[in-house]
Amino acid sequence: METLGHKKKTTPRRKWQVFPGRNRFYCNGRVMMARQTGVFYLTLVLIMVTSGLFFAFDCPFLASNLTPAIPVIGGVLLFFVLGMLFRASFSDPGFLPRATPDEAADLERQIDAANGPSGPGYRPPPRTREVVINGQTVKLKYCFTCKIFRPPRASHCSLCDNCVERFDHHCPWVGNCVGKRNYRFFYLFILSLSFLTVFIFAFVITHVILRSNRTGFLSTLKDSPARYPFTGENVVVCFFSVWSIVGLSGFHTYLISSNQTTNEDIKGLWSNKRAKDNYNPYSYGNILTNCCAALCGPLPPSLIDRRGFIQSVTPQPVSHSNGSSMYASTQLHTHMCDQEHCIQNTKFVFQAAATPLLHSDPVMIGGGGPPFPGKSSLGVPCAASLAPSQPSLPSSMPGLGCAGDMLSLRDPDTHCHHHHFPSPEETPLPPGPMPLTLPCAAHRGHMNPAQLYDPASQDSLHEDSVRGLVKLSSV
Amino acid sequence: MAETHSLQDMRQQAAIAAKVFIQRDYTSGTVCHFQTKFPSELENRIDKQQFEETVRTLNNLYAEAEKLGGSSYLEGCLACLTAYTIFLCMETHYEKVLKKIAKFIQEQNDKIYAPRGLLLTDPIERGLRVVEVTIFEDRSLGR
């Protein structure tokens, strides 16, 4: 009951506040970017300074001597460039939300069923699924962080720590990943920026030429730093930008016309050099359709709903309620530390999930809320407050009790948390996740210790957990 | 958000027996398409044809959302010309179809699935990865 009361006091939180991964959110979730945004500000400064100087020093001359359309066109181009830059930087590139615990458990069950029973020493195949798309065999990989099989063309960005649909690349200049939802903005940004730099470059040169026609070239150059400061700077910046940005635009134009991502092109996935009959199964056949699809196709919605409110779907008033606790467990998952810890902890979860799921009847699966809902709220500060230290595998029961509780926290569906005990003993775990479990002991005041020390159930599942662990440790 | 009060009450009172996940079918590419294979856990709960019809309609709706055609190109070009500021006023075609899908799922839940102790979750709430079917304990069987 105290959890309900506790919930009533806090204001409802939005999903972006508990979003897993390394993103930053601004404006109450409306803006999202990667963690490293320094280079984005550099991009912005470069664009603004160069354009500012152009408008301040070159435009008055050009407007009066040539045509006033020049600053107008320049202004429109600049507005478009900035608009596309902000759109590419601030929008969701196509992140895939992480799997709910129920989904992850179900997938794990399917993988176990597919792999079949194995003896000790059997090395399971890596977690992949093969799909035939338009005649080409594509391998779908399992993402250990997000606990999903990645859709085709999706990839996990290590900088943002999320899977991105149609992953192109992570662009530091834009301060965000470039994926399905913002690829067209990114492309339009670099295209319009190349037009803008060529425009500025051309008209700065024109300005110098026109002026030198009147007063002579050398005297123009002499006067220029005094009367028209930074003309040289403008020329230099524009010159280098032209080559790099125009080149990049050209490259992406090629990618769009062949419907490939940078990721695929770099890996040479669809090139003829790999296999004779290798072709891109996603291409529509002709260049025009590919371009239209990439640039003018329907804009997919954001799958992460970052401004939505977190709903605790069913209340957890009673300790043995069977209500769904998916959202609560989503909150738990989001407070995981680094990706490496994530992976190690995920292995823990799979050990835990695999073992009881082999034996439990369906009632357990969808089952229920954490047996001790109070733990859920405590688990969050537990995971978040940890500093990794040099651990040793705890041999004492309280430590194991902790590990078991952490497992049950992360996988609340498996009702029988005491089954997790054999797992930490057996696992040849790298030290990473263990420190997470140690401080937990401090929080576990209300836990019933009697349930932890249940040797009978441990023995019965010992063999299965070893089996599960052998599978997992080799992945 | 697609659930009515009666469904929420049902969820709070009934125990969840199991959850079945209908995965995506990628054989036709990256378009949103769910597998129409009938899961064995639902065998004694709902008619196979009925279920497959639901999934097929869902697939058709998603295909409509992602369709490349004259209208989507027009919308895309217009949006590009206005530097995408037009989406501040109007919603995209995809969003319109998503609303249709939400309504369809609610309707299906009310008419077909709730009376049988099942609940469909809108795939958008699961990141368009799965169609989650929650199977509630059948109290009538005295379990």
UniProtKB/TrEMBL annotation, chain A:
It is an enzyme of class 2 (transferase). One of its GO terms (cellular component) is membrane. Its EC number is 2.3.1.225. The keyword Cytoplasm does not apply. One of its GO terms (molecular function) is protein-cysteine S-palmitoyltransferase activity. It comes from the Eukaryota. This is Palmitoyltransferase. InterPro entries: Palmitoyltrfase_DHHC (IPR001594), PFA4/ZDH16/20/ERF2-like (IPR039859).
Automatic annotation (TrEMBL), chain B:
Its main location: Golgi. Keywords: Golgi apparatus, Lipoprotein, Membrane, Palmitate. It comes from the Eukaryota. Coiled coil: none annotated. GO terms for cellular component: Golgi membrane; Golgi stack; palmitoyltransferase complex. InterPro entries: Golgin_A_7/ERF4 (IPR019383), Ras_palmitoyltransferase (IPR051371). The keyword Metal-binding does not apply. Pfam families: Erf4. It is found in: Golgi apparatus membrane. The keyword Lipoprotein applies. It is a lipid-anchor. GO terms for biological process: Golgi to plasma membrane protein transport; protein targeting to membrane. Residues 20-132 form the Golgin subfamily A member 7/ERF4 domain. May be involved in protein transport from Golgi to cell surface. The ZDHHC9-GOLGA7 complex is a palmitoyltransferase specific for HRAS and NRAS. Belongs to the ERF4 family. This is Golgin subfamily A member 7. It comes from Coregonus suidteri.
